[in-house]
Fold this sequence. Notes:
Radius of gyration of chain B: 23 Å
Largest sheet of chain A: 7 strands, mixed
CATH topology of chain B: Immunoglobulin-like
Largest interface: A-B, 30 and 34 residues
Oligomer: heterodimer
Structural class of chain B: alpha+beta
Strand order of the largest sheet of chain B: 1-8-7-4-5-12-11-14-15-16
Strand content of chain A: 15-25%
Number of domains of chain A: 1
Largest sheet of chain B: 10 strands, mixed
Order of helices and strands of chain B: HHEEEEEEEEHEEEEEEEE
Low-confidence stretches of chain A: 1-18
Distance between the termini of chain B: 63 Å
Distance between the termini of chain A: 85 Å
Number of helices of chain B: 3
CATH topology of chain A: Metallo-beta-lactamase, Chain A
Low-confidence stretches of chain B: 1-34
Shape of chain A: globular
CATH class of chain A: Alpha Beta
Amino acid sequence: MFIKNRVVTIGLVLLVSQWPPLAVAGLACHKIAEVTEITPGVFVRAGHSGTIFKDGDIANIGFIVGKRCVAVIDTGGSQQEGEALKCAIKQKTSTPVCYVINTHVHPDHILGNLAFKCPDTRFIGHHNLRRAMSLLGPTYLRRASNKQGENLSPDHIVLPEEQVQQQLELDLGGRVLQLTAQPQAHTDNDLTIFDVETRTLWLADLLFSRHIPVIGGSGSLGAWLKLIEKLQKQPAARVVPGHGPASMPWPEAANDEIRYLSRLRDDTRTWLQQNGELPEALENVGYAEQEKWEQFSEFHKRNISTAYTELEWEE
Amino acid sequence: MHLSTRLRYLTIVKAFLFVSLLGMTPLNAAEQMSPVPDSVWQNSLKAQFFGDHPIVQSDEVVELEAPVRAEDGAVVPIRIHAKFPQTADRYIKTISLIIDKNPAPLAGKFQFTPQSGRADLALRIRVNEYSPVRVIAETNDGKLFMDTHFVKASGGCSAPVGTDLDAAMKRLGKIRFKTKNITSLDEPVATQLAVSHPNITGMQKDQVSLLYIPPHFVTQVDVKFEGEPIFSAETTISVSENPNFRFYFVPQKEGTLTAEITDSKGMKFTQTYAFDGNEIKSAKQEKRAVGQPSL
């Protein structure tokens, strides 16, 4: 009896030690995301450079708090990352999460969605997001499963129920968010969020800082440049990039990205005009930017390949 | 209770790790011994394309240049270098390009003549998964020589259509022919033939309906100078969107150059060029659609 009790006690101790070290507002929390309140009610968990499917906490994700509702903006690259953000929310406010907004399809922004799935929470995205998630979801799941060593169920791809055609206003209670479905740029499903009260423009991956800009598979170099230059004319007190600092001044925050994308476009055009071939283009175009960006060696060549094939048939 | 459960779990995990480590060791060793896995080639492709014809593994006739790891599986640039000039006595007749693991392993079969000057070729291919890529050259005496590389790339055949498909279909069949520095009529001239064609594989999904888009790709390329073939190719879905071929020919004289493209829907696109001894001038494009394009 005594022995059995001891076993049970040890078992309980082990059980407890495996269990969440923290309970936040009744929520079991293994980890609480570190968030910064960049302006009243706008919280950002800043990401750090890393490899998708290998490292976590890559993208900038966060939430905006109104009187009645919280809107989550992107959920991170895994359910665990989403849970940590959920715990951070519970720590800051008791206001319920009514909306999860996904800024675009990339896995470092959407694979935490499952953590927020609940009947009272609406998932919102660009009108192209549903199909993009349906197309790419299975590949993301396979790659994430390979890395995590467990089979992720299709439940991890939580599709948006609400699709933003052009614009949508969300009232969080005394606080209005303006959601805009942008034309093709970084991807073909980029959504921006403008918090009217604080004039904060959440640009997500339309803006990269420090981390090299990456042209997505459904994106376009020319269209992205056009859009970001247009957005620079839109006044905002601050912007939130998809990768880089939690908050940046506007419009100067986009200068580095515009310089990189312009150089990539102009050098590739020159290369094409001189009848230069793709293998050499991959080794030569735009390398003046090499020292200026993180993850350059991971993404620059892919960007050149995309630019070369995109610009080859431009009129 | 929990302790024993946990211990059992750990034991299982350890056993699993041990087994997977065991399983991995011979695989890694095998990879080190033979960098180019050959089973698909040995078991089926070799016989399918070349019967029991002997093939010499050598880069003395043609050498393949391919990236070890490609940035984009849908656009993998490769180059084939011929090791001797094309002469009437000795020349490369055909070059076959095979990607073992692709759904259409034969990307193309390319015909050259002595008038090609050099049987060099550059193009972009789709690589669907990590695969050996091989070139097999047939010389005019009927002998076969092969050079092989292993290319790490994936998703090339199912990658969504790169550009806006509507825009691509409007440009369908547009042909561009470019030459570099013509200094002598008797020297091989580097030329580039670019065709605007989405080369739809049949493994790409429509972004709206999520149904597979029916295949539609370039099947035949014929380039003639004064009616004589200087370069021709039979091609498949394993050639990238907007096929782009770089090759050589020796003009020898002034004349008319014709490029004719045929696709899997029976559409034909031709363009003729006047070559005045100095440069190639584009003539009006003649576009004959035998089949109908459809989305």
